[in-house]
Amino acid sequence: MTADKTIFGLRFRADGKLQLSIDGLKLFLDSPTKKDKGRLHGDDLAEYRDLINAVESFERDHQGGFRDWMLFTVLGHSHIVKPALKSAVEQYKYHFYNLTELDLKKPAAFIKSAEEEIARLKPQKKEETARKERLMGMVADRKQAIDVLTKKWLALAEELNHIIAYIRDNLVKIEKLTDTSIAILEGEKISRKKESILIEDIKTQFKERLRASLHQGTITREDLEKAKEEVSSLSKQTADLIRSDVYTLTQLYVAIHEYCGKACSELDRRVGEIQNKKHESFDEDLELYAQVEKILVSFTRECLFEIQVADFGNETEHDLILMEKRKEMLEHLFDLLRQGSL
């Protein structure tokens, strides 16, 4: 049985009783938070939503220069920018909010106060006996409420654990994909086979042009020398551009790999603490799951990668040749990267 390489596919481990509709989730995300007035629950993911839209827009329209092509293609290929990840974080926020809404303190405080009062009551007094019975009934009701709330707490905690595992496992898959991609780019950098082919294409193009001029009897020695210089200059510029682009792509995959690795380490640390605590304290659970929420929100909010891309004009014939060869090389690299992730 082959390993599932799908990244941010369907999440199968989920409590069906806790799932909500798309409209219900949207209603929650569009509702205001209690802490920050004027801020909505969904605002934490605004930057990530914009990034998803930018990647999807580029994949649909293919508009933009080499920088956008390289950046958005890598972001899409690595799967670090995915609607499924956004949805998982949104669901985490929703279930965590419901966890924070549980109030186990109030019934526990009532039970403690009532039991202390019961201990002070004198059973030989009729009115105090009646009071004791009423209090005991109310204590029983509060204990039943705590039992219901505790079951809901544990169910929500389990659902949050499933979401954490889903996100963490997929980030590990991204790490593996980026490892493979880096190896492919390093291998291409070493072999330089495609680079040689592209440079040979330039030489052939100029040879055919000179041959055509020779047949027309319009070529001179100066033309030959000029052609050699042009070929040499274009070959060097092409090689420089290719190496620069390979380096840029490699560094981008390295940055994504490190970014996911850092998030995985932080999530593993919190998950370890959650497992060690074994849900013994509701307040401790709240604090740990709040820390996980911060990690997930930060991961999506700060998922921004900047790249420096060599640029040039597109006015001269030489510019157009360089642009064509650069485009061919990038298409070749992206084909290799996609094949490597299959």
Give structural notes.
The two termini are 15 Å apart. The longest helix is centred in the middle third of the chain and has 66 residues, at 126-191. It contains ten helices and no strands. It has one domain (43-340). The model has no long low-confidence stretch (mean pLDDT 89). With 342 residues, the protein is mostly helical. 77% of the residues lie in helices and 0% in strands.
Short description:
The chain is mainly alpha-helical. About 75% of the residues lie in helices and about 0% in strands. It starts with about 20 loop residues before the first helix and ends with a helix.
What order do the helices and strands come in, and which of them pair?
Blueprint lengths: L21 H8 L16 H16 L4 H13 L4 H19 L3 H16 L5 H66 L1 H24 L4 H57 L4 H20 L15 H24 L2
Helix pairs in contact: 2-3, 3-8, 3-10, 4-6, 4-9, 5-6, 6-8, 6-9, 6-10, 7-8, 7-10, 8-9, 8-10
Number of strands: 0
In round numbers, the mean pLDDT is 89
> Helix share of residues?
over 70%
Tell me the overall shape.
rod-shaped
* Structural class by sheet pairing and helices: mainly alpha
What separation lies between the terminal Cα atoms?
15 Å
Q: Number of folding domains?
A: 1
Q: Report the uncertain regions.
A: none
Biggest sheet, in brief? none
